[in-house]
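Why show two proteins at once? Because comparison is the fastest way to build intuition. When a single record is shown, students tend to memorize it. When two are placed side by side, the eye starts asking what differs. So, the first record is below.
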Amino acid sequence: DATRVLAGDAAAPPLVAQGGIEMTGLVTAINALAAQRRALSDDMARHIAEASRDVALQRDQLAALMAELEQSVVVLNLEGRILLYNARARALFRRLSQAPGGAGGAELIGLGRSIHTVIDRALIDHARESIARRIARGDARASARFVTTTPLGHLIQVSLAPVRAAADDRGDVTGFVLLLDDITDEYEARSRQDHRWLDLSEASRASFASMQAALDMLDYPDLEPADRERFQAVVRDEVGAMSGRLTALAADASHDMKTRWPLQDMLGADLVAAAAQRIAAETGQEVDTDAVDADIWLSVDSFALIQALAFLAARLCEALAGSRLALRLAPAGGRAHLDLAFEGASAGLNLAGWQTCPMQTSDAPSPLTVRDVVERHGGELWLEHARDGSGALFRFLLPVAAGTVPDAPAAGESRPAYYDFDLFAASAQSRESDERALGEIAYTVFDTETTGLDPAGGDEILQIGATRIVNGRLLATECFDQLVDPGRSIPETGIAVHGIRPEMVRGKPSLPEVLPAFHAFAADTVLVGHNVAFDMRFLTLKEKASGVRFDQPVLDTLLLAGIVHPGEDSHGLEAMAARLGVAVSGRHTALGDALVTAEIFLKLLPLLRARGILTLGQARAAAETSYYARLRY
């Protein structure tokens, strides 16, 4: 068994000598051959790396460009499977999936997953047919645009364009590029404005009718003075009412224009550094920036906000010569506090008009006031004095950037793997699942942590962790990780194993709430687990309560290990990892065990191929013959 592992994986552990001198000599020879093969493999890898340098550079440049794009970009193959997406798209889809009080462990987007789980297939098919008709008429750069809604009520504008096999736009269409924008806020603002115009039109129509009737009466020369005054009052009142409505409409439109001003995401520390530099240039005074949270991202009009800070700092320096200035940034609930603080006796400080006067700095006068800048951010601003009179601060309440910073890459990855161009050639719908090669299938590898070992006797799931394998590659950045409130006590014996204490799951969603999110994450994949019958029993017992059923094929690394290593005494997760050269970390956490299981599964695939087990159907049939397949929970 160890020799087979070494034959399939040059990085596997060397054989350990056992038995007599003949066996020791054989082991030494096998290890020498493996070392020679490893050296040849390393040499070949070096040549391949050198030959692929230009390709890798272009790939990294593409990834960098995708990361910097302001738009959410998703690339699909002809089947609607996702083969590339950028961080903006990931953030957008995360925002779309966040139902209040719902499970937060799910990802709607992922390599190899179908876009039709988010966007109705009929809409995309209609757009594709429209593009095909335009291409047939000779429009080589045809595209389509439509708007759709999500289950949570978001409005998404989608632009769809074809990917051509040739650079001259004459090749066959091999996939599609989607540009996505969340236009929910913009639509709501326009709807409010439309309602205001409609209300104004209806009210004005009635006012015009009243004034016309009054004016008609005023044309009578023999009208009594009292009646004439009454009809003139009608005209004055209606004109005043119309003027008031127009003033209110103008104020609302001005507010909408300010609040809809395009804001940019910026690291708070960078904003503070730029503001401090500007204040020093304006006032000649250094600014303390030590109290700044380095992890906060803001959504701001940086130019206008820095201008407002410089304006206030200049007013302060005029009023309090020699006062020490400081900029501070800290989280405040779902927003952030940006403080311009100053030391010195603030009693009697006169800054009349500091919110409403047009800002004047060394640059040309600005038509904006500080209050305009605050309203542009949909925030607030106030002047707060220290209780002992030793100073005061201007406090800006600002919006933070939502979901704009991608998660940190997994260890060993320089950039998250958000693309897989091999999926252009995927044909998942062309064959039945059992006939598909094991290396071509998308897998969801998962694990659970539970209160105990008796699912039928009342034990419950505490945590679900999962990752995905697509095209034979572990996607460590596409994970599901969710704690679950079991609705019962957690035995101390279990806490000693998994470390999940009652306070960690208090307030978390229940399993019937979590399972629909996990079901969506695992859609269109084969489930993989270690001793997975145990985990599946927990899922099947909750089918009625959750309303979802996991009916896709399932593979068990425990059963597969019994096929490739029938002579081994132990097929536990740690024993298998040691045999196959897999590093173990995060043991007895659901996600940690799922990641280890995924790496073990990838190591088992070439060993299964060596035994003639090439397809999913063959793997499932072989697993059923294993001794461990008789285990029941």
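Second record. Ask yourself what differs from the first in the token line.
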Amino acid sequence: MKKLLLILSVFITTQITAQTIINGKVTDTKGLPIVGANVYLDATYDGSTTDENGLFSFKTEETGTQTLIVSFLSFETFTMVGDVSYMKDLSIKLREDVNTLDAVVLSAGTFAAGDNSKVNVLKPLDVVTTASAIGDFVGALQTLPGTTTVAEDGRLFVRGGEAEETQIFIDGIRVFTPYSPTTNNTPTRGRYSPFLFDGITFSTGGYSAEFGQSLSSVLLLNTIDEPDQEKTDIGIMSVGATLGNTQKWNKSSISVNASYINLAPYIALFPDRNDWKKPFETLSGEAVFRKKTDAGLIKLYGAFDTTNFELTQEDINYSEGLDFKLKNKNLYVNGSYQGALNANWSLFGGVSYTHGNNNIDIMDRDIEDFENAIHIKLKFKNRISNRFKLYFGAEYFATDFDETYADDTVSRVSYGYNDNIAAAFAEADIFISKKLAFKTGLRAEYTEIFKDFTVAPRLSLAYKTSGKSQLSLAYGNFYQNPSSYILKFNQNLKPQKTSHYIFNYQYNADRQLFRAEAYYKRYDDLVKFNDEFPDFNSNYNSNGSGFAKGIDFFWRDSKSIKNFDYWLSYSFLDTKRDYRNYAEKAQPNFANTHNLSVVGKYWINDWRSQVGFSYGFASGRTYTNLNQPGFLNNKTKAYNSLSINWAYLISPQKILYASVNNVLGFKNINGYQYANTPNANGHFERRALQPAADQFFFVGFFWTISEDKKSNQLDNL
């Protein structure tokens, strides 16, 4: 019996002495105690939570090397590996988690939209519900600050830059010919349907080192990764028809869109200033195929369109008008893969091919060009930690441009160029805390056509001033080769260059957003030539220069007034250039000093309708008055346009849509054309350059056919 008691006593004593006490204190980086943090040994039931003083203590029977974990919401998880006997009187500091929604965002120069964006300025569906956009990406983006109103063109002019200075990417791969061809005083449109995309990033400056060959801006369009349902979309419009279909399988899906536009019926009802021999007609189609793999996503995207029209336009130098005829075919395809290599490494790879063909007849001149272009890209990402992410990669651009020209006096001649560019880039995101973050990068490019090597540094930082506001700065150098209308005649030039300096303030509250951004851009090595238009015999150099500076404001509010969503944007631009055939440094004729946009959308529940409006104002643009001394010595009158739209929900899957652009019929003037020779009084007669049509009416009926009864055309409102 005594032996049994002795054995039990030794056993109990051994069990008591085998228990180890783990204790300590948990604070933040400022030394303030964290209350309620979870503290435990991994893969055990042993643990505790911290008290009001940040203290914790618990017992464990575990021995040897163990893993202690401390976690708390909005803080990075702390991990300690060691012998439990040394886990006493610990002092643990938790760092804030930089991936939380209230963390600082690198946003200088960038407008982002989509489900994955922390700051939504423009939603993808705003493209189809903004009155003045008429379903075009560019039309919707032109209501944002930083853009310039060039109504007769239709492309994106950003912060004193020409339209060629903005590049467009689909799923990270370059689009070489993003716009449909057009003629004078008839704005172009983007080629691609907004319904296939769910993410928009519009960078008006200071963008990532990943992107090059763009002096002013990049527009990133991301196709939908995974459609939510199978459906068929049917659209019948006053100017044509659309048809779309989406099919889903286990790990793959495909979406197809087709569109036919013909302006003949519209022009018959609402004649414009042109004498149309063959009204504008276009047939287009797009498709996106997606395939999920165990570690990533494969996407294949393709788009094709063909356009043709013929007309006679008013021209002061031709009493019978100027004959213009165009036929265009365009093909764009890209493929991409994005996936994880392991827990820390991921990669992105893609390739695109563009084929464009234009056949243009202007009076007795016959011009035909072919452009074939390839973009190949490979990018790696290493998530070293929550606070440090490294990106690096390489890409290759190849462009083959050929053109032929003939007229009554010149037999057919051929000319063109090959432009091959190799680039490498590296960039790092560094989060010091939830309040302070940096992005620093470097891009290097070699241009074969010029035998030129450039290095472009990029840097941006952001500091969170409060829970709802932050300040951002950005700096970068950017290079871009001259456009085809220059390179096809002369290749003895240099890459054009800009330097961006940006300061940004942003306030982001519940359904309210305010941005103010000041910037300065310096241009160097711009192309100059000595004739009115570039030609074989022109003299070219890269001695041009210029600057652009200004401030942009943006306010969006969908909270203050029930069922009403609106935004205001204003831009002030001060810019001058000495380039092309300019006699002196002057404000270019595509730049407005003041630009204002007001957009509103109101849902009327009793009417099952959304009504909207979009008002645009732009101060006058410069032009040269040949009857007065000086260069670009006058300005046009201010531009005004009020557009309205109305959408009526017939049923959950059927919607009737109507819009009118420039409903008040403002007589806007884009500039003036002067006669080639003066009249008997020595005066140069002129003709106002006005839009071909003062107003545009659009009516459409859209029907979604789906087995999912939750599918609702109201989502598009």
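One difference worth noting in the second protein: The chain has five helices and 38 strands.
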